[in-house]
Amino acid sequence: MLRALSIRNVVLIESLDLSFEHGFCVFTGETGAGKSILLDALCLVLGQRGEQNLIRKNAEQASVFAEFEYDDLLNELFEEQGLPKGEIIALRRVLQTNGRSKAFINDEPVTVQTLKMLGDQLLNIHGQQDHLFELSRQRVLLDQTIDEVIKKNVEEAWKRFQEAQISLETFEKNMFAHEQQRAFIRMQLEDLTKLRPLEEEETLLLQKRQEIVGFAKIADTVAACLQGMTYPKDLAGEIAQHQQALTKANVGLEAVEEAAKSLDRAYVEVKETQLILKDLLEQHQAHADELQHYDQRYSELHAISKKYNIAGDDLHKVWQELQKQSQGLDDPEYERGQLQKQLAQTKQEYVEVAQALTKARKVAAKNLEENVHKELPDLFLPHARFQINLSELPEPQWGAYGTEQVIFEVCMNPGQNFAPLHKTASGGEMARLMLALKVVTASQQNVSTLIFDEIDHGVSGQVALAIGKRLKRLGDCGQVMAITHSAQVAAQAHHHLVVSKQQGTSSTLTNVHVLSENERIQEIARMLSGQEVNEAARMAALELMKES
Q: Would the pLDDT of 182 be above 80?
């Protein structure tokens, strides 16, 4: 919903700040007062093309600010564009005399195209550029009454169908490249089968090699230590001899006995040390033989890793994957057959869910047609007809939204053929038919603000009253604004603003004033009688407002 609009230096508007509420709001005023300028300003801030003639004379730039309430339906667009979210959406557009234009959403600079994408979802202006004249919008409107699961199934099935089609086309287009690829895979598989790499073998080899190399650094010290303890005399043997001599010579002295015991302990420690050192040297000799094996294996792994640019620890995983692919290496027809089978399967799945969507669309179309036809007599269009044509598309035009095109068609007079809505000229009768369509689909449309520009043009009396009542119905479930010259339409409004023009000696300015209840009576009376407002016109205006 549009909450506020601020306009600076746009044509005849120097400075204007307006606030809006939920419901049906009308803008009235004499011809030429500047009502269309409000629409131009709104179009500018919603991303439409900005013309230089919109900038007020002698001003350096024109700017428009609009504030809308945030709706969760906009989440996807905001996330795609990386826009900041809040309770409100602030749009700003600046048009400069040098031809440059700036656009902002919530104070973040954006492209005009992004501004337009958001604007299309926030507000819809009825006229020649009405969104419902676009075929894609007609499909979206019809599909809003269809189960989301059905539509999602079609989108997902179409994606799988497309992927299968692209895979087969790529295969056919690159047959020679495929043959080269198969030859390369065969060579890889042959080399890896000879190598038979283990899982993360490179890391394991490096760890073992590091252990051996680490011990090699102290092997010389261990050998020298062992040699010093065994050559030219065995240190343990000498300690044993001295211990035995002290034991024999002891004549009961406690100190001699303690010394003999100490030598006995020393003998045990030295003997164990000699055994440990000897075992270490034997292991080193065995590891030296292993090191040669590890180095050779590492060289083999490294050579294959470098040849195919594959990390050493990934060789085992690649080998396993290539073994799984080996069935089709020597048979391109096998691969083609698999791709064709996948394409046929995904196409069948897509056709089935698309048919379900078509069936749902037929039901939704019938309901929409019936509801629109109920509105037409009260809008004095007893002979008008509306129908929805589900035109089957050729296969190349199938898509994520099904296998048919949704086309709204109208027939305004007896004896005429139905014609597509987007090819039908705008006019008073067409405007009323579009109003009927909007009344019926108001609760389904994501756009919360609708604007009608002189939809009552050329009509009066009961027709204008019927239009006003339907605009009021639209306002009951959203926000509707209308620029009107009809007193019958204006009397139905929840809010009434009058646009006036002030002529000065050197400039002309447009102003907008929110009317009080008494001022509304006076304005509607003016619309009924012209410039001369008499008591009869005021009474008629009051009666219209009471009826509304």
A: no
User: In a 10 Å sphere around its CB, with 0-12 CB exposed, 13-18 middle and 19+ buried, how is residue 428 labelled?
Assistant: middle
d(CA 269, CA 508) in angstroms, rounded, equals 115
CA dihedral 124, 126, 127, 130 (to 10 degrees): 50
Compute the distance between CA of residue 376 and CA of residue 18 in angstroms, rounded to an integer.
35
> Encoding tokens for residue 503?
């002529």
8 Å CB contact between 350 and 158: yes
* pLDDT bracket for residue 144 (50, 70, 90): confident
d(CA 90, CA 69): 9
Cα 212 vs. chain centroid, distance in angstroms? 57
**Of 382, 434, 429, residue with least CA distance to 408:** 434
Instruction: Tell me the C-alpha distance between 463 and 475, whole Å.
Output: 19
Tens-place pLDDT, residues 284-298: 776 767 778 888 888
Helices (H), 309-405: 315-325, 332-375
SS3 7: strand
CB proximity list for 369: less than 8 A, separation 6 or greater:
386, 387, 388
The answer to whether residue 217 scores a pLDDT higher than 90 is no
Can you give the pLDDT at residue 406? 94
**92 phi/psi in degrees, rounded to 5:** -140, 135
Contact between 486 and 527 (Cβ < 8 Å): yes
Is it the case that residue 252 has pLDDT exceeding 90?
no
Q: Domain ranges for the chain, please list them.
A: 176-328
End-to-end CA distance of the chain: 23
Residue 225 Ramachandran class (φ > 0 left, ψ -120 to 50 alpha, else beta): alpha
Average pLDDT for the chain? 86
Residue 225 confidence (pLDDT): 84
Per-residue model confidence (pLDDT) at position 331: 65
